[in-house]
Design brief:
heterodimer, A: MetI-like fold, 64% helix, globular, B: 318 residues, mainly alpha, MetI-like fold, two-stranded antiparallel ribbon, disordered N terminus, cell membrane (chain A), transmembrane helix (chain A)
């Protein structure tokens, strides 16, 4: 939204415990620590509990999901819920859809955004100063504003109910602009000396981009990859608008389909399917949490 | 014109990337830069024209037309779509829901993000673990998160049964006139407050320790130090997070559709959901486009206000 504000610069976090300690005792320090820990534990409940509840309830039999008293732990986990989610619905197919679309969009965005980010940062070509702010304005535009004309365009091309709009529009349209911005900010910081050395070795523009700048830009590329993958993996409005066939759905829309013939929720099956979309991402997040936190904080600007 | 030959031009600025061209005379460094610059930005620039600029112009055009989905005929309608929006009996509820959702989300989100950041900024062991926990909903799929809360907030769902254990009868959260909006706000706060928390944490870590110590020596208590030293210093972050959260609050669609479908009585029918109803449930692209233009105008005004505010409100910006 705001294009040059403080937080657009890379966000780096220190471990607070490692900060230098000031000498001297604070008043009430005996109770301070336990109280702070207690506050954090209580506050953590609404953040952790839903995910926990999603996982445990996905293992309950249907007659126990809404029973009283609440079941915090499934004593006899019913793993067959997962089998049902995959066997009775095209979930495996939808899973593959989401995966291959997100991977293509991520790769395409990394290419497009790093190319134009590089040009905006390092190539003095006429139009550079005009084009960059113009393209950046794409960040302001919510998906909903442009979706009607885009739907009509896709429809005219006969590409509704295919995956083309879910792949091509994010790579070339507004969603990749954030990636361009992140890449440009990074490339601006590369010292001129490095490129001069590359020129001495006979590298042209593409060589300078591909051999000198891009290898240095791995952290920025990682941020772009993380938020692009997550945005594609989680997109909801676009598949809802462009896809009509269940087998073409991606996961978020697919997850809303778990109802019986009367339209009531099959909670345990729906939650089992939800778990399969959440857990892989959570595992990667915990393994690389610093990259995620810093990468998303500087870029993933959604309220 | 120069002749095309295979050998590379000599000179330290020689280029291997551009198409084989003649000696350095035509391909001056400047021309090389022009060509390579435009080639590099070409995909993005074409994409911008086709998927951002064109649809933006088209949506304004459609908003002045009516289109019949069955026959596909489009007719000029003047400002009829906009006057329909003004006179729509749902409009007051939509405006109310949008504004209340936005205010509720911003106030709770910013306050909670600041509180969590202050807690994480205490010099305690294990804060990284808590940071990970508070941040984790950000990476959880929005739809999966919303489905889980939908399950928890059912009348006989997890939250009410737990309240029952301690002797409280909870409301039917998603069906009550006021509790529905509150529920939707809460679900959204916990989903994304981690992002703002991290931004505040980075800002807090940038507050010079010497200033806080000086204030302490002057006899300022913890609250006074926070209010008079920390708060002014982190004001750029407060402004940024507020603006981003406001603009995000205008784009909650999946949450509303899954939790309430705009109900009860349009109490949670925010502008983007109303847009979806008109454009894709009722297939009225003319009216839907008018709503989309209004949404865009609001975002535009917010952006301008933000540019203004940045100069006046922010005490410090490096």
């Amino acid at each position: 939204m705001s294009l040059e504000t403080a937080a657009r610069r890379p966000v780096t976090l220190r471990d607070a415990a490692a900060a230098p300690r000031t000498p001297g005792r604070r008043p009430g320090s005996r109770w301070r620590k336990p109280l702070l820990y207690a506050a954090m534990v209580v506050l953590a409940i609404p953040f952790v509990f839903p995910t926990w509840w999603m996982i445990t309830s996905s293992l309950l039999p249907e007659n126990e999901v809404l029973s009283y008293p609440p079941k915090l732990l499934p004593l006899h986990p019913q793993w067959s819920n997962y089998k049902t989610a995959f066997a009775n619905y095209p979930l495996a197919h939808q899973y593959l859809n989401s995966l291959y679309i997100a991977l293509l969009v991520t790769a395409g965005t990394m290419l497009v955004a790093s190319l134009s980010g590089y040009a905006f940062a390092r190539i003095p070509f006429p139009g550079n100063k005009v084009l960059f702010p113009l393209i950046l304005s794409g960040l302001l535009i919510p998906t909903e504003v442009t979706v009607i004309p885009l739907f009509k365009m896709v429809d005219r091309l006969g590409l509704t109910n295919t995956h083309w709009p879910l792949i091509v529009i994010p790579i070339l349209g507004a969603p990749s602009v954030l990636g361009t911005f992140v890449m440009r900010q990074f490339f601006l910081a590369i010292p001129d000396e490095l490129e001069d050395a590359g020129r001495m070795d006979g590298l042209g523009r593409f060589g300078l981009y591909f051999r000198v700048a891009l290898p240095l830009a791995r952290p920025a590329l990682a941020s772009v990859a993380i938020f692009t993958f997550l945005n594609s993996w989680n997109m909801y409005l676009e598949p809802l608008v462009y896809e009509t066939d269940k087998r073409n759905y991606t996961l978020p829309v697919a997850l809303t389909q778990y109802t019986d013939a009367y339209g009531s929720h099959l909670w345990n099956i729906q939650l089992a399917a939800s778990v399969t979309t959440v857990v892989p991402v959570l595992v990667v997040f915990i393994a690389a949490q610093r990259h995620f936190v810093e990468g998303l904080a500087q870029t993933g600007l959604k309220g | 014109m120069t002749t095309v030959h295979e050998t590379e031009p000599t000179g330290e600025r020689a280029s291997t990337s551009r198409p084989p061209a003649g000696s350095g005379r035509f391909w001056t460094l400047r021309r090389q830069d022009t060509l390579s610059g435009w080639l590099f930005v070409l995909p993005q620039a074409l994409g911008f024209l086709a998927f951002v600029l064109y649809p933006l112009i088209a949506v304004v055009y459609y908003s002045f037309h009516t289109s019949n989905v069955l026959s596909g005929v489009t007719k000029y309608a003047g400002t009829r779509n906009y006057s329909q929006l003004v006179h729509d009996p749902a409009t007051p509820s939509v405006a109310r829901a949008t504004v209340l959702f936005c205010i509720g989300l911003v106030v709770i989100n910013i306050a909670l993000a600041m509180l969590l950041a202050v807690l994480l900024n205490q010099r305690l062991r294990g804060t990284t673990v808590f940071r990970t926990l508070f941040f984790s909903p950000v990476v959880v799929s929005l739809v999966a998160w919303t489905i889980t809360w939908n399950f928890l907030l059912q009348n006989n769902g997890g939250i009410n049964s737990m309240l029952h254990v301690v002797g409280i009868e909870g409301p039917n959260w998603l069906r009550g006139d006021n509790s529905a909006l509150v529920s939707v706000v809460i679900v959204q706060v916990f989903k994304n407050v981690g992002l703002n928390m991290v931004l505040f944490l980075a800002a807090l870590q940038g507050v010079p320790r010497s200033l806080l110590e000086a204030a302490e020596i002057d006899g300022a208590g913890a609250w006074r130090r926070f209010r008079s030293v920390v708060l002014p210093l982190i004001s750029p972050t407060t402004l940024l997070t507020t603006i981003v959260t406001i603009s995000g609050s205008l784009q909650v669609f999946a949450q509303i559709q899954i939790l309430t479908e705009g109900g009860p009585n349009n109490r949670t029918n925010v502008l983007v959901y109303f847009f979806y109803q008109q454009a894709f449930d009722n297939h009225d692209f003319g009216y839907g486009s008018a709503v989309a233009v209004v949404l865009f105008a609001i975002i535009l005004v917010l952006t301008l206000v933000q540019w203004r505010l940045r100069k006046k409100w922010v005490f410090y910006e490096s």
